[in-house]
Amino acid sequence: MAGAAYARAALVLALGCALLAAAADAQGDWLKAHATFYGGADASGTMGGACGYGNLYAQGYGTRTAALSTALFGDGASCGQCYKLVCDRKADRTWCKPGVSVTVTATNFCPPNWDLPSDAGGWCNPPRPHFDMAQPAWEKIGVYRGGIIPVIYRRVPCVKKGGVRFTVNGHDYFNLVLVTNVAGPGSVRAMDVKGSKSPDWMAMTRNWGANWHSLTYLTGQGMSFRVTVTDGQTIVFANAVPPNWRFGQSFSSNLQFHL
Asked: Which residues does 112 contact at the CB level (< 8 Å), separation at least 6?
């Protein structure tokens, strides 16, 4: 009887360890990088950016944002992804704030500076993973005078309010659609469009950042979008844009990706 009880206890322990390991894999391993800051104390200098989100306040991204180095940015494929960062006090106890973390959204690109070595100013040079964070986000984990801090980071699900949003720009035969407020993985892997007068889905191409384009004439048609995010989830946003749309308009859906 004692042997059977021991076996059951061992099995429960093994299952518990397996579940904890699976949970850790789902969150992703902690990785090492460095972080600097830009944009000023109010983060006003972070507006715009290589993902194309424009006014980060209006789009709901606020001041918890970062520009990613080449190694992380992926030519825009990482736009919208969320990262949890902790200052690495094992590497630097002087400029790291203890016991705190911050979660940021990738909204911009930190370009390389080939005139400076990667360990002395060329922080975003390949192959370095680096976060150039909005100053208010950086100061959650680092002491201002430090300027640059070692961090550990990992991908985390993006939590959003409301549904995915679409902004239509461009001109006839060039529809440029900005996708924002994406929950879950945060980043879009593929996108298709279907006009209300069209029987078939048409693949869109990433133009830059979080902007996807189609070269089909869709003026005067309603538009539906089929969006696949980087964890494989796909949602069809039927009739997301009404037929009387105009370039420059934004449209909110009532659908969202799972965390």
From this structure: 69, 70, 122, 124, 125, 126
Please name the residue that has the structure tokens 């911050």: 102
Could you write out the DSSP letters of every residue in 38-77?
ES-TT-GGGSS-TT----TTTTT-TT-EEEEPHHHHGGGT
Q: Is the peptide bond before 127 cis (omega within 30 degrees of 0)?
A: yes
pLDDT tens column, 137-167: 999 999 999 999 999 999 999 999 999 999 9
Contact 214, 206 (CB under 8 A): no
Query: Is the C-alpha dihedral spanning 129, 133, 137, 142 positive or negative?
Result: positive
Using alpha carbons, select from 157, 170, 165 the residue that is nearest to residue 259: 157
CA pair distance 33, 83, nearest whole angstrom: 12
Nearest to 38 by CA among 46, 50, 27, 30: 46
Burial label for 237, CB within 10 Å (0-12, 13-18, 19+), is buried
Question: What's the whole-model pTM score?
Answer: 0.88
Query: Using an 8 Å Cβ cutoff, are 257 and 210 in contact?
Result: no
> What does pLDDT average to over the chain?
91
